[in-house]
């Protein structure tokens, strides 16, 4: 049991070191040697967990997916039972969380995925499932998708530093996207 716990601590330290390197230096500087230096683990120890840089990037992506899935699940658990379009609300709130810190790990992961585009397939399947759930619960699926796209635009513009919004403006815009009542007037129920 002790070896398993020590191994998990080493793996976690390597992942945290990789996140630090990508956030600080960019994904191009992520190497197994850099992870070993940053984490204080031997290169052999790092390679025990991750044979390649791609394996590290996949672990980082899995780490981010797990974090945001947990955030979304917790958000859903706190919603009122009668909340309309809870899946949409959870996704908008999750995007708001990702955009809260422009230097967040989410930005680092986007950069890492640019280096290894095949990693996108992991997120694409999850995204398809989320969109299907959003469309299934929505009285107006097109409006729901527009709100989701607007939230993604806000999040991505914040992550890439492209927005001209203050933090307060961005927060207000996310709140408006989350406000189901104001969107009710625009809902078209005849598909």
Can you describe what's shown?
This protein is mostly helical and 191 residues long. The chain has two domains: 1-51, Orthogonal Bundle (Arc Repressor Mutant, subunit A); 53-184. Helix content is 75%, strand content 0%. The protein has ten helices and no strands. The protein has helices at 2-25, 32-39, 43-49, 53-78, 86-99, 105-115, 120-137, 141-159, 167-178, 180-184. Helix 2 (32-39) crosses helix 3 (43-49), helix 4 crosses helix 5 (86-99) and helix 5 crosses helix 7. The protein is elongated and about 60 Å long. The protein starts with a helix and ends in a 7-residue tail after the last helix.
Task: Break the fold down into its secondary structure elements and pairings.
Blueprint: H1 2-25, H2 32-39, H3 43-49, H4 53-78, H5 86-99, H6 105-115, H7 120-137, H8 141-159, H9 167-178, H10 180-184
Largest sheet: none
**Which runs of at least 5 residues are low in confidence (pLDDT < 50)?**
none
Gap between N and C termini: 57 Å
Cα gyration radius (Å):
19 Å
Task: Please count the helical segments.
Answer: 10
At a glance:
With 191 residues, the protein is mainly α.
Q: Which properties best describe this structure?
A:
Arc Repressor Mutant, subunit A, 191 residues, mainly alpha, elongated
